[in-house]
UniProtKB/TrEMBL annotation:
Record localization: Membrane
PANTHER family from the UniProt entry: PEPTIDASE S49 DOMAIN-CONTAINING PROTEIN, PROTEASE 4
Protein family: Belongs to the peptidase S49 family.
Protein's name according to its UniProt entry: Signal peptide peptidase SppA
Residues annotated as the enzyme's active site: K196, S390
Keywords: Hydrolase, Membrane, Protease, Serine protease
A Pfam family it matches: Peptidase_S49
Classification via Gene3D superfamilies: 2-enoyl-CoA Hydratase, Chain A, domain 1, 6.20.330.10
GO MF terms held by the record: serine-type peptidase activity
Organism: Cystobacter fuscus
Gene Ontology CC entries for this record: membrane
Keyword Cytoplasm included in the entry's annotation: no
Tagged with keyword Hydrolase: yes
Length: 593
């Protein structure tokens, strides 16, 4: 026994020495990573805009657990904050060390980032750069998303083995109604608004007529914006692009050149030679002198030097109760941020940037309360990104002014409740449920059996009440006639263009336009700066990226896309954590391609 304790003590001492040594090494590694400076920019450099990234409104740093989980999964897409990217491109246009800009792409990221509204803002920066310096673009295959940006370039290259996608927009919804029935999972719903189609994938096997109607109108608006934006840079007409979409859809390189979609058909090595002529040759790598957009931008937005602060706060992702993850809008977290800004005398105005399809009704209301209190204290302006729908619109309604992009998806003023139960599935597997209760409504919302008629009626009454509150708030905040509002609500999603006509938004403009208006309303438009969250990557995220250096995502097959679609649906279901089970959220699937 004495020898046992000696051995145990020796092991503990050795373990302690190991832990202490590891801590010192870990701290040293943190210092090395955290102390790294911005990469040098060659005297004649081309700014490389690699569209293999998720362009988020605000690339916030994840927590340690999220970073480790990402590392273990072995796949991570690059992220960059939209404002950071736009500021970097604008800065490069005036930087004497930057002689041109090169656009390339291999992948199409998924998520709420890189949506139409974000791409439109980045495209504006690319056009401003082109007015001063050359912009080139090359890819093997140009998808519509990337071509929307690359169409700014001249020359625009495509590989001899590649293609150019020109087939219009489409939106497909995955329906699980029949599958859930086969598995014995029953779903009951409560909803208000005939266009509130968020519950349909779990009930039906096809789109309802109202859902089809709203999606067709929405896609028509987005496609019109795409054509009218791209056509002038390619010296074409929107009608010519429509004809290509109707007749060809996918163009071979030579066809794309004849049609004017690209300037040259060239291999990668030929494009490199063109870039070398522009910038010279990097003696170390034998390539052209270059600096990546993310590296050039650094890790934070560089605001102006104005004295007065116009604070920008972000609501990006699903709206959930509590703190939420870094890619979600936590009701408690965002409310706390707004409260701090409201109470800060140095903040002269607040710009709330919304890029959210909505989510928890109670969390949305919690955030909206802080929006109202802030708006009473100082100017509060909303800038809408790609999504500002349902709960995303709920938190926007009381702003002094709402700015949206033409291709913003907004509105969706409606609510729903989703009530799955697994009784049949469990019974088929030999699992049963039994219990006792002290009131008829004691098991309201249980997933072990279908809701009874009285229970379902009660939940519907709660849903109706929240919808009426939604209408009241939008009517008051936007100063819209309530009866007129009921006609354009019904859960319908509108484009930014249509939303402006209906009075749901005030102006079509960018984040900077919103900040400029906020500064004017605060009376500080002559001397202000946009004060944005730094978005600096945590050490945990940097560590995760270093572990994944060789685990960059590969081009996805159609099967990968389908599996990702199903996984996204599961993630959305996991985010439904409203205590009352009632949600102000736009349709689950607005997957546009």
């Amino acid at each position: 026994m004495k020898d046992f304790f000696k051995t145990l003590f020796a092991c503990l001492v050795a373990l302690g020495v190991f832990v202490v040594g590891f801590v010192f090494l870990f701290v040293g590694f943190v210092a090395v990573v955290g102390g790294s400076s911005e990469p040098p920019v060659p005297s004649k450099a081309v700014l490389v805009v690699d569209l293999d990234m998720n362009l988020l409104d605000h690339a916030s740093a994840p927590g340690v657990s999220e970073s480790l989980q990402t590392a273990l999964q072995g796949e991570k897409s690059r992220t960059l904050a939209l404002a950071t990217a736009v500021a970097a491109v604008d800065r490069a246009a005036a930087d004497e060390r930057i002689v041109g800009l090169y656009i390339t792409s291999n992948l199409v990221p998924a998520g709420y980032g890189s949506g139409p509204a974000a791409l439109r803002e980045l495209r504006g920066a690319l056009q401003r750069f082109k007015a001063k310096k050359p912009v080139l673009a090359y890819n093997v295959d140009w998808a519509k998303r990337d071509y929307y940006l690359a169409s700014v370039a001249s020359p625009l290259f495509v590989n001899p083995a590649g293609r150019v996608e020109m087939n219009g927009l489409a939106s497909e919804t995955t329906f699980f109604g029949d599958a859930l029935q086969k598995f014995g999972v029953q779903v009951q719903v409560t909803r208000v608004g005939k266009y509130k189609s968020a519950v349909e994938p779990f009930l039906l096997n096809r789109m309802s007529d109202p859902s089809r109607e709203q999606m067709q109108m929405l896609l028509d608006d987005l496609w019109t914006e795409w054509k009218t934006t791209v056509a002038p840079d390619r010296k074409l007409t929107p009608e010519a692009l429509q004809a290509l979409a109707d007749d060809k859809g996918m163009l071979l390189p030579e066809e794309a050149q004849v049609a004017g979609l690209v300037d040259r058909v060239a291999s990668f090595d030929e494009v490199i030679e063109e870039l070398k002529k522009l910038s010279g040759t990097d003696s170390e790598n034998k390539s052209f002198n270059q600096v990546d957009l993310a590296a050039y931008a650094g890790t934070e937005v560089r605001p102006g030097k104005g004295k007065n602060r116009i604070a920008v706060v972000y609501a990006e992702g699903e709206i959930v109760n509590g703190e939420g993850r870094s890619d979600q809008v936590g009701g408690d977290r965002l409310s706390r941020e707004l409260r701090k800004l409201r109470q800060d005398p140095d903040v002269k105005a607040v710009v709330l940037r919304v890029n959210s399809p909505g989510g928890s009704a109670s969390a949305s209301d919690l955030i909206q309360r802080e929006v109202i209190l802030t708006q009473k204290t100082k100017p509060l302006v909303v800038s809408m990104g790609t999504y500002a729908a349902s709960g995303g619109y709920w938190i926007s309604a009381y702003a002094d002014r709402i700015f949206a992009a033409p291709n913003t998806l907004t509105g969706s003023i409606g609510v729903f409740g989703l009530l799955p139960n697994f009784q049949k599935l469990a019974n088929d597997l030999g699992v049963t449920f039994d219990g006792v209760q002290t009131a008829r409504m004691a098991t309201l919302g249980t997933v072990t059996r279908p809701q009874g008629e009285a229970e379902l009626a009660r939940i519907q009454a709660l849903t109706d009440r929240i919808y009426e509150q939604f209408l009241d708030k939008v009517s008051e905040g936007r100063k819209l006639d309530r009866e007129k509002l009921k006609e354009i609500a019904q859960g319908r999603v509108w484009s930014g263009v249509q939303a402006q006509k209906l009075g749901l938004v005030d102006e079509l403009g960018t984040l900077e336009d919103a900040a400029r208006f906020a500064a004017e309303k605060a009376g500080v438009d002559k001397d202000y700066r946009m004060d944005m969250p730094k978005g600096r990557k945590s050490f945990a995220e940097q560590l995760a990226e270093s572990l994944n250096e060789e685990a960059r995502p590969k081009a996805r097959s159609s099967v990968d896309v389908l599996l990702a679609d199903v996984q996204h649906q599961v993630e959305v279901l996991r985010s439904l954590n409203d205590p009352a089970g009632v949600y102000a959220r736009m349709p689950f699937e607005v997957s546009i391609h």
